[in-house]
Amino acid sequence: xKQVREACDTIALLDSQGEFxxxxxxxxYDESNEEALVRTDRVYMCRDQDTTxxxxxxxxxxxxxxxxxxxxxxxxxxxxxxxxxxxQVPQQMQVSIFKSSDHTIQGTQGDYFTSHLDGxxxxxxxxxxxxxxxxxxxxxxxxxxxxCYLNENWVEGDGGCLRLHKNGAKExxxxxxxxxxxxxxxGRLVVFSSLNQWHAVLPTRAxxxxxxxxxxxxx
Length: 219
Description:
Blueprint: H1 2-16, E1 21-22, E2 42-46, H2 54-71, E3 87-88, E4 93-98, E5 104-105, E6 108-109, E7 113-116, H3 125-135, E8 142-149, E9 162-165, E10 179-182, E11 189-193, E12 199-201, E13 208-217
Antiparallel strand pairs: 1-2, 2-4, 3-13, 4-13, 5-6, 7-12, 8-11, 8-13, 9-10, 9-12
Helix pairs in contact: 1-2
């Protein structure tokens, strides 16, 4: 669609200007091993200042969905300890770029993001230690993950599927016994629990754009 193409043009321009950078948690799981990268994508935080770009329109649509969810009778997830009525919509949206690259994991080349949870819940200082607690401050209140894809003409051989694990997963890998792989097709919206849904991005062999925002809880 025209809106997807405008957003992709904006991303390409920002990328050419050096606005996309590696994520702060790129090496979270194994800082002693410089080769053990958790993720190899690059990210940009889209805010409300530029109301003319294609990304602004995508952010507005995602935020509208998030507000509707927060204001609806959504009761949360069965295993939650939080009140879903306290959901808040963020002021910014994360845009990520995955590309075909020289990065290799489990014998496959391409940018990737190993299995992880988007939210950490209210893990205590004693559980995480000082460094872990401080590093997790920006994800501790994430509750609901919303991802919109912008990849037209995506085909099976391009890789880069979102892998949702049904019964948990080993942190820092792609492995599990039961999972669903979701192609990142343009216009597709995927929504899941930030606290409980283990997921990964499989190595990609084509440029892959994704826009994400996280509803948070304030209780």
